[in-house]
Specification:
Low-confidence stretches: none
Helix content: 40-55%
Distance between the termini: 49 Å
Largest sheet: 3 strands, mixed
Number of strands: 3
Shape: elongated
CATH class: Alpha Beta
Strand content: 15-25%
Structural class: alpha+beta
Radius of gyration: 18 Å
CATH topology: GMP Synthetase, Chain A, domain 3
CATH architecture: 2-Layer Sandwich
Number of domains: 1
């Protein structure tokens, strides 16, 4: 299901607001009726918010496409959750390091 959702967003959802993202997890309830899907997005705060909003806005379409691919009798509902993966913070950490280095007097390491 994780790969299917990822493929649907990448190949079938044509919203230009969606940037670089990863489906980090899919948790399905025991009765197979509901699922929670973790999404991590790379970029600045505005890009993350915009991409996540676009994915959430397309959730009905994603559900429809998933139901066409699914072998289950009932396709679980999809609840997208933003997942802040530490690995995706690399860009932010590098920016913080640069800012700290820029504040240091020259010749001081």
């Amino acid at each position: 299901m994780k790969k299917d959702i990822d493929d649907i967003i990448r190949k079938d959802v044509s919203d230009p607001r969606i940037g670089f993202f990863t489906v980090t997890y899919v948790h399905v309830s025991k009765d197979l009726r509901n699922s929670t899907v973790g999404i991590s997005i790379m970029g600045n705060k505005q890009k993350k918010e915009s991409s996540f909003a676009a994915i959430k806005n397309a959730s009905g379409y994603i559900y429809h496409k998933l139901s066409q691919k699914s072998l289950l009798k009932h396709t679980p509902t999809i609840d997208f959750k933003y997942d802040e993966m530490p690995e995706f913070r690399v860009e932010e950490i590098l920016k913080e390091i640069k800012e700290e280095n820029d504040k240091r007097p020259e010749g001081q390491d």
